[in-house]
Amino acid sequence: ARYVLKICNSDEDPTLLDARISALVHLAMQPGLLRTPGVVPCLNGAPVTRAGEHLVWLVTCLPGRPLGDLSERPEGLLRDLGRGLGELDVRLASYAHPSLRRIFRWDLRHAPQALELVSHIGDMARREAVRERLERFRSHILPIVDELPRQSIHNDANDHNVLVLEAGDARLGLIDFGDMAWTARVCEPAIAMTYAMLEAGDPIAAAAELLAGYHETRPLERTEIAVLAPLIEARLCVSVIMSAYETGRDPDNAYLAVSEAPAWSRLEWLSGSPADRLTEAFLTACDPAAGEP
Prior knowledge:
Elements: E1 3-8, H1 14-28, E2 34-35, E3 39-40, E4 49-51, E5 54-60, E6 64-66, H2 77-92, H3 124-145, E7 150-153, E8 162-165, E9 172-174, E10 181-184, H4 187-198, H5 203-217, H6 222-226, H7 228-249, H8 260-271, H9 275-286
Parallel strand pairs: 2-9
Antiparallel strand pairs: 1-5, 3-5, 4-5, 6-8, 7-10, 8-9
């Protein structure tokens, strides 16, 4: 057996660690389409122990490769990922933890807070473009998002947290629950769609395929589908801001900039792709009859 030792830095809020662990335990009690790590208790039965100043815990290791490491995506994989995320959110709908109701830049309901760090983007034109997009998101989209159904979500199904498994019944796994949030449920597919689009030859088709799978297992309301395009744009904006900020703090950490170039590329692509075009494709993905004349 293989395991992953997790170290919670002493600066982190221990209640957030409790939220991650209890979420994994909750999911293990009702297994689904996506495999998730299992929590391995200490000899005394507790899920966490202390090593010096830090809290330490152990989880099972899922046998697979990150989606981002694959040169090609197997046919139907994005739809399967969407189905898995939708079914995951069905299971998480009955899970709640008070620490998940936090002010958090990676929660798209709080995305405009990243503007506090926008000065770390060196290119002035790009910086102002991101500022304008997030301000527009704050004034025009957030009032709608704040009225949409909410629940606990994983909140970070990027292609380094999604594993293509090598063995077992499940095809895909999901790791790293550190960004969990209690937020608008539509943020879950929006974030996954964002990363599905990054390297795709046809970004709209890739996003629509994942969305169709999600809608099969966790149907979305029409109002939720209508805000997917601006949510994707907001996620890209937060990503490039945080990448610039974190890279400035730790310039030797290559992982911090792993998505920066494709994120900028997609932001520029979105400038020439009207939101209505994306929304029409997303509505059709959820209801093929919606695209018929």
